[in-house]
Design a protein that fits this description.
alpha/beta, 2 domains, Lyase 2-enoyl-coa Hydratase, Chain  A, domain 2, 273 residues, 48% helix, single chain, four-stranded mixed β-sheet
Length: 273
């Protein structure tokens, strides 16, 4: 297995660790003890996503975290220190929340599928991070919540991703009560795909990544973009849009190769775009 190396050489303890294995990139939040999404962490992760978006070699991204918590969301200590600013923190709050929103959009718009690997608590913007990934696999001891309402701060930006991943009334239940839900409930709500024992988490996630990475890179990129694009349309618009996407996809070299492979009873050989 490849060594995990820091994102930035000037940081002895990289805030985001990266490991490449074949066509799969594993990014690990490394901001203990709570993996809070400080400005530095979000900038580091955004930088990694910008870099991988340009890669033809990476086909799947895994987003994991070190330590006992997946992520506790925004760094409250960092936010609080700026209440002493002349504007009572407004400019810094705007910077932090906007950076977080832009990070979630990068995950959504990344050409490669992203799998969240969760072991522990994912709360507030940490849950927003999970909900913004394409797939989510967690341990049976993982927990999830949007607790902002408990401290007088409704989780409005996490709400955007959570309300698109979970059923509306169940998303609102989390947002209004601030209560923590277990892994089983999170799966019922639609926030995670699979629940596995802790000792098998990485093995299962790696298997999912390998299966997806074995597919046509052209089809993966086209499909992810189309999935989120049609979701914002009416059903009539969605079918018109998807029809055009399907035709363009059929004209791609991988589609020709895939169909020829089926007819020739052989394994397809995909080409990088």
């Amino acid at each position: 297995m490849a060594d995990i190396v820091p994102l930035h050489k000037e940081e002895p303890r990289g805030l985001v660790l990266r490991e490449v294995s074949g066509n799969v990139l594993r990014l690990t939040l490394n901001n203990p003890p709570a993996n809070t999404l400080s400005i530095a962490v979000m900038e580091a992760l955004a930088g990694e996503l910008d870099a991988v978006a340009k890669s033809d070699d990476i086909r799947v991204v895994i987003l994991a975290a070190s330590g006992a918590l997946f992520s506790a969301g925004h760094d409250l200590k960092e936010l609080t220190t700026h209440r002493a600013d002349d504007d009572q923190g407004r400019a810094f709050f705007e910077k932090s929340v906007r950076l977080c929103a832009d990070l979630m959009l990068k995950l959504n718009r990344l050409p490669q599928p992203v799998i969240a690997e969760i072991d522990g608590l994912a709360t507030a913007a940490g849950l927003q991070l999970v909900a913004s990934c394409d797939l989510a696999i967690c341990t049976d001891s993982s927990t999830f919540c949007t607790p902002g309402v408990n401290i007088g701060l409704f989780c409005s930006t996490p709400m955007v991703a959570v309300s698109r991943a979970a059923h509306p009334k169940q998303a609102m239940e989390m947002l209004l009560t601030g209560e923590t839900i277990d892994a089983s409930t999170a799966k019922d709500f639609g926030l995670v795909n699979r629940i596995v024992p802790k000792q098998y988490l990485q093995q299962v996630v790696n298997k999912y990544a390998a299966v997806i990475a074995s597919k046509s890179p052209q089809a993966l990129r086209i499909g992810k973009r189309a999935f989120y694009g049609q979701a914002e349309m009416s059903i009539t618009e969605a079918y018109d849009f998807a029809t055009g996407v399907m035709v363009e996809n059929m004209l791609k070299s991988d589609a020709k190769e895939g169909i020829d492979a089926v007819l020739g009873k052989r394994t397809p050989e995909w080409k990088a775009e």
